[in-house]
Amino acid sequence: MRSIISAEWKRVLPLQIWILFSMVILIFTVYDDKKEKSTYTYVDADGNLIDGRDVLKDARQKKEMIPVESILLGEKKDFLTEESLNYLKVQNLVEANYSKQIGELTAKEAKNFYERRISHIRRNLVESSTVSYNKKEIDLLVEKASQVNAIMIGYAEGWSSINRGMEKFVPLLLLGISMMFIPLFGEDAKVKMNEFIFAAKWGRRQLDFARIFIAFGAGTLLYLYGMAEYVFIKLLDFGSEGGNFFIQGEERMFFSVYPISYIQQFFWNFAIGYFALFVAISFTLIVCILIKKTMACSAVLCFFWIFLLVGDQMNLYITNHYFFNFMPYRMTKFHHYYLENDLYRVGGESINSMVFTTGVAAIIVFSMLGMIALTLWERQNRKFVIGG
Amino acid sequence: MGLIKFEYRKLWNKVSISALIAFLVFSTLHTFIYLNLQWRTLDGNGEVWEGLKAFRLLKEISKDVEGVMDQQYLEGLVEDYDSSSEKRYLDINGEHRGFLGTGGMTKYMFPNYCVNYAYYGPYMTNGNDKIGLGYEFLSSERSFYDQYKESMKEDKLMANEYGGLFPYSAHQISILEDKIEKVRTPFTVEYYQGIANMLSWYEIQFPYFLVVLVFSLAGIYAKGSEYGVDELTLSSKNGRKKDFKAKCISGNLFAVTAYLIFVAVLMLEHGGIASLHGWNASAQVFWYDCIYNITVGGGAILQFLGGLIGCIVIANLVMMLSAVTGSGKAGIIAALAILYALCRFYPSYGMKKIFNPVCFGNNFVAKDGMFIGEILVPCICITFVLALLYITVFEVSIRSSAKRYHIGGRR
Fold first, then answer.
1. Cα distance from A5 to chain B (closest Cα, Å)?
2. CB contact, 8 Å: A303 with chain B?
3. How many structural domains is chain B composed of?
4. Torsion-angle region of residue B250: left (phi > 0), alpha (psi -120 to 50) or beta?
5. Interface membership of A362 toward B (CB under 8 Å)
6. What is the pLDDT of residues B248-298, one digit of tens each?
7. Could you tell me which of A55, A37, A63, A51 has the C-alpha nearest to residue A240?
8. Residues facing B369 on adjacent strands
9. ipTM of the assembly?
10. SS3 call for B175
11. Cα–Cα distance list, B17 to A157, A185, B209 (Å)
12. What is the pLDDT of residue A380?
């Protein structure tokens, strides 16, 4: 068995593929970093263009972190200069919470910063046009949200950039990895493998098992490697400070109810991405086993991913709730777990979409594996004549 | 001829059929799911109808607003709308203020948006705030059309300022003004929602259709692919020159056939859901800034023709990549990368898009013109000339690759 795995592994994942894989991740991450940095560029009061890299460098050098309420109450006035990144962050939070500028805030408003946030969250839940939450669910979510009681302002761009970028990176990683396994069960017109397979010493059963093992084993390895390279480059570029800050320090996550840090968010995303990878690989295997021809499989899988992409762009609650949430593309659009508060009700219990999605993903993977096993078993027991 | 026939047959293989079926399944799901879940019609009783039946209902109730937009029509329209329940429902300060911008439909969209264009010109969008009829220029047919043409002029000049290839000269502006003056009035108003849906879906799905061509044609000159080139092909009686030519023609024929299937399926689906009624409506009722005297149906045909030209250009590009790389897989990767770059990085606004074959299926080919010197040439003609240029370049590359073609080794 080991020799079969080794031979198939070398066939599907030769050294060149690993090198190419690393290079693509490197190029993507460096390009993404460059784009991220350009978002920090701004024009100052004198009309000078301040480069995003300088803004980040300046913010990183300060190494300060202060709770947002201290800043608003004026306890640390020297902490904020109008050109600093921290000022921009606080301004964004104030605008999201009060629709005002920092200078316009009264002392009372500054004191009630967290209460105001909670009241916004409660109102959003009550007035939600997509999910009708019951009182128990609202109380539970609000209770979670109220655990966020010390939003720190400081440099955390490394981890926030990792989490933001994962929404673009992980779907591409999944697509790339799953496409690599098309040749496992796909028949290439050039490589007449079937003759060898049927004449092999150990027969088809062991070969099929080895191939499924490789798909998930090598998939795991590639995923770990890809994520490690991505995180390493990001942290190298932006630094690893601020990983323990609440994610609510970032404007887009301000109304998230989850009291978690950037590092926790990363691990949550990482775990969901891993489940999504298994769903993607299962789809690839089943399509390849059914269609057989490598190119035809690639075409079908390409349109499968296009459908998932367009489905995500349509952004309809019903289709997302019942279908796209369990598909690899939307599974890795991580922001919706933290912001949309979608719930699934099973047996009187409300389950948040993060937990439910991963549960359903696991069921999909096992169902697919069952289908794969059945198809292969049926094929193994079929009388087969080469060329007939 | 026989050679072309056989090459054409070879192109209908498992790969191309799988790609085309996968695309059509995607297209159908995209059409039905979105149209069924998002769109809804407001009837005259203030009731909202959802799902696919909303389109049938809209067609039925839109008969009231169909007609020629003359003095009598405008007077009747203002009177009807002012006393309608729709006006109250769509009140911009009311609770349904987002109805029209989010898939909501009413029969008044067809004439009222056209009237509002006369007021808003380049700033026209759809929404509850741009459906009202409280304009002084509606007091007479003449003042309405004068205002309409003024807005059209403003729209075109602004488009040139922000997205033109070069600024218009004074003489060009006067030619444009003449052209706008010649726009035939009064307009004919008809229900056209089915055609609008079809063209909208067509524009969204056209780039994805091109992926079918990539998978189907990337192996046409590949070594060892089932329908590519092998030792037998090269040593045949006809020789490689004739065979490569036959492959090229059959590749183009395949692209045309697949494209016609795509368009036919779109027409069937959208015709079935919302009907293709409205072919005789004036183009200006649908494309408000259209400077040509065509109908909505005529415009749709021009748009499809533009798409066909774009599709042939991309088919030749894919075949060129296949001949240059000599590998099906490399051809697919290169073609997908180029397609992605054309869709993602090439500007899809302003007149720069006229050079991008992926945009040849957009509505500008039907409604816009471009100045070549002092002549205002319809965009469809320009796309045709550009396509000839692109195809010639690709054809030369294919021929040069054919001369140096070697099986089983690097050139």
1. 25
2. yes
3. 2
4. alpha
5. no
6. 999 999 999 999 999 999 999 999 999 999 999 999 999 999 999 999 999
7. A63
8. B378
9. 0.87
10. helix
11. 48, 20, 13
12. 72
| Statement to judge: residues B124 and B77 lie in one domain | yes
Q: Is residue B291 part of a domain?
A: yes
DSSP labels, B304-344: HHHHHHHHHHHHHHHHHHHHHH--HHHHHHHHHHHHHHHHH
Q: Are residues B227 and B78 in the same domain?
A: no
B376 is a domain residue: yes
**ω before A328 within 30° of 0 (cis)?**
no
Q: Are residues B335 and B367 in the same domain?
A: yes
Question: Measuring CA to CA, which residue among B297, B313, B298, B322 is closest to residue B386?
Answer: B313
pTM: 0.89
Q: Which amino acid is at B325?
A: T
Choosing among A303, A308, A312, A322, which should be mutated to test the B contact, i.e. which has the most B CBs within 10 A? Answer: A303
- In Å, how far from its chain's centre is CA B283? 14
Residues B275, B392, single domain; the answer is: yes
E strand or H helix at B202: helix B193-217
pLDDT: which is higher, B250 or A105: B250
Q: CA A305, CA B210: separation in Å to the nearest integer? A: 15
Question: Where do the H-state alpha helices sit in chain A?
Answer: 2-12, 15-38, 52-62, 68-72, 85-98, 107-111, 113-126, 135-145, 157-180, 182-185, 194-199, 203-238, 262-291, 294-314, 317-322, 328-331, 335-339, 353-380
In angstroms, the separation between the Cα of residue B409 and the nearest Cα of chain A is 15
Using a CB-CB cut-off of 8 Å, the residues of chain A touching B208 are 303, 306, 310
Cα(A257)–Cα(A247) distance, integer angstroms: 10
Q: In terms of residue numbers, what domain contains B50?
A: 38-148
Q: Tell me the shortest Cα–Cα distance from A315 to chain B, in angstroms.
A: 10
Asked if A158 and A242 touch (Cβ cutoff 8 Å), the reply is yes
Q: Which two tokens stand for residue B218?
A: 């990337």
- Buried (b) or exposed (e) across B197-213, using 16+ Cβ within 10 A? bbbebbeebbbbbbbbb
Q: Do B87 and B16 share a structural domain?
A: no
- Is B343 part of a structural domain of the chain? yes
d(CA A239, CA A262): 13
Q: What is the DSSP string of B334-371?
A: HHHHHHHHHHHTS--SSGGGGG-GGGTTSTHHHH-EEE
A129 Cβ contact partners less than 8 Å away, ≥ 6 residues apart: none
Are B30 and A295 in contact (CB < 8 Å)?
no
Check B22 against A300: CB less than 8 A apart: yes
Distance from CA of B161 to the nearest CA of A (A): 25
Contacts of A293 in chain B (CB under 8 A): 14-15, 18
Q: Return the H-helix or E-strand segment holding A112.
A: none
| Contact across the interface for B219 and A306, Cβ inside 8 Å | no
- Same domain assignment for residues B69 and B27: no
CA gap A202, A205 in Å, rounded? 8
**Per-residue model confidence (pLDDT) at position B408:** 60
